[in-house]
Amino acid sequence: MVCNLIVFQTHVIFWQTKKWVYIIDADLHNVDANEVYLKKRVCSVYFSENNRSPGTNRLKCNVIPTLNFPVILSNPDTPKATVVAIPSVDLDLCGKCPDDNVVSSPNTNVQKAIVKPSIDLDLSGVQELNGDLINLIGDASDANNLSLHAMSINDNDIKSKSVDAIKNANRSIIVSKKQHRHSGFLKNIYVRRVVDLTPKCRHLYKNALYFQRQMTNANVKKAIFKDRLTAATKFSNVFDVKISNKMTVAGLLFTRLQLHETKKEKHGRRFTGDKKMLSLSLYKCSPQCYRLLSKLFTLPSLKTLSNLLSNVPITTGINPIAMKVLKSYVEKLPPSQKYFSLLFDEMSISADHALVFMVRGITKKYKQPIAYFFCQESTNSHILSKIIIDVICEVYSTGLHNKEYRYDIYEIQRNNKYFQIIHLFDAPHLLKGIQNNLLTKNLIFTIDNITYEAYWQHIIDLYRKDSEMENLKMLPRLTNNHVIPQKFSKMKVKREAQIFSQQVSSLMAFLASQKIIDVDARGTENLCLFFDQLFDSVNGSYNKIVDSKKYRTAITTKSNHFDLWEKSLPALHSMAFIDSKSQKRQRPPTVKNWEKTIRGLKAIFTFLHSKGIKSVLPRNLNQDSLKNCFGSLRM
């Protein structure tokens, strides 16, 4: 029979050499361990199949020979035999002590014998098999089915020593596990190194490690989510019972938004449609306030809100979605807040022009673009008239006008369906028209029975005198873009209010009195003061007097607006522009539109006052809201 020889590296199993010597051959006890390790080999018949590592041709770690080794009885006169046998002893590796029948009694008959005729076993030296041997056997965690072949034993000491030895073996197993503890899959197959595996097993080992890491990560995530779920469930119960019932719908939605999204990464936040609509409502109320709130709380970005608005289908003409939203909003308003002004203007775009209509509240701040149309150049008056009528009818259908006020508001006759529309002009554009005409023409007008003549050249002279000393300028806001005709745009309406102002009028009057500029500039000085006060009266936005501007306030029965308007109407009626070349008197539509606007404001306030409204802010009737809308579209 050819034996399979097992070869091990010295630094790995050299410590096992002495153990094997004690078990197999007592004649080698006095031989140097290095010599035994280098020259001797152990046949594979001494090891069971359980001692081999799965997938390899190597032995498991810490195994010892457990089969076919000789046992010498304590009686030295017992002759050696080639083949001997005793009932097998099964070592319990779980720490349980074997019963008293571990070693057979002296009268036990030999029932089984293992015969190996091709191997001559030397039984010498086995008499030293004592507690040390059992300890060596116990070091192997898989030392199962240890079969000891011996003859009948008449010595009772063997029995007691065997029991004690097996108890010591159980303790040795625990110590061995502590000293040779290896984590991972290799421990289960009793392999120390990955290189000892076959290529196929090595591949399976790497895959097993990968999936083990994946499973560990999944378990960690599961534990985290489980804790979060437990905490969320606990908090949800408390929140729903004790807190949510005491909050408004908007407050509850905002609170949930903070609780759900604050701890998430910036790009990992997800907002529901209701949360986006709430944030969009906050943004529309005040974009500046929304930017501040975004720094303090977790809110959707402006890009998210813009994408939300881009999903709304909008086409030319009257927008049915805007009308539906406006109708639902108006249903909640009291009758006194259902008065509105209809604004429309054309915006120059790269295609050509866009005509936009917007609804703006008079007594309450709300605004809503409701329609837009593309047109070539300016809209034809006949087409514009038809569009205005259609838009007014659609706005009326939203319920902005309560039925009980219907007849009074528009002075509707009971036998027909006609009503009066009060038409107003935008005050900044009217002021711009006065300036554009004054650039090329002189203006003659009468105030308090005194006739004056205004020149644009007086404003240029004032600006140049004021600019001679840069550090002591009295008019720091005026620049070349305000005064020099070649450097400012005729369509910009921002700078006209800075030209026709009380500050310019006061400085011009002083310089004219000191003859620093032309004395005839008193006419231009009175014109600047006149339009400063008139513009404030039709553009007021405060309920109180601010910066000593008594006309830049709300229109009330006790305000000074009506006195000023009574004086202004004759002055406007007397205004005429004289062409410096032809000396012809012209009265452009700008002057006439000023008169219509003043009469319209008086009529509007008289009617609203009769309905219980005590004050009206004139700025709610101009086109500032529409211009701001154009500005946001151009950005």
TrEMBL record:
Highest taxon listed in the record's lineage: Eukaryota
Transposable element P transposase-like RNase H domain sequence ranges: 351-401
Segment forming the signal sequence: none
Pfam families to which the protein is assigned, alphabetical: TNP-like_GBD, TNP-like_RNaseH_N
Domain Transposable element P transposase-like GTP-binding insertion: 429-541
Stated name of the protein: THAP-type domain-containing protein
Native source organism of the sequence: Aphis glycines
Lineage per the UniProt record: Eukaryota, Metazoa, Ecdysozoa, Arthropoda, Hexapoda
